[in-house]
Here is the input.
Amino acid sequence: MLIGILADTHDNLPMIERALTELKARKVEVLLHAGDYVAPFALKRILASELPLVGVFGNNDGERRGLGKLSEDIHPGPYRFELEGRTIVMAHEPDMLKDALGDGDDLGVCGHTHEPQMSIGPPLVVNPGEVGGWLTGRSTCAVVDLKTMCAELLEFAGHERAKR
Here is the structure.
């Protein structure tokens, strides 16, 4: 199973669309979001992809109640769950993830730094960087194959800022 990993979308609707288009083209079956959707309208766009979503809240998710009303699958971090026989731990902040990871965990997912990072495990740890591109000017996400535990970083050419 291929999963798409997003973080730090920060309301940038054009880049959310680009990420979702790329992830659907790669035939991902599930989306993981490591927080900082920011507002419910950004989450609505993600949910419109009709891909199952599992996520955690980030430090900039000010409308947690509104986000929670849209999806019961967004949790306070760290959040541990199983998917396709793999144990996955998610937290927005890397330090929180590091403290939560334990023996037997297969995949750790975080965000917050806006910089993509991957460390080969076990467990494999993936920070997909930022979809929003506001801080670094780079819009990135990741794909992980849960069968092989191989990860790939995707970068979208032509950063676009959302029009306000």
About this structure: The chain has one domain: 2-156. The mean pLDDT is 94. The CA atoms of residues 139 and 156 lie 6 Å apart. The first strand starts at residue 2 and ends at 6.
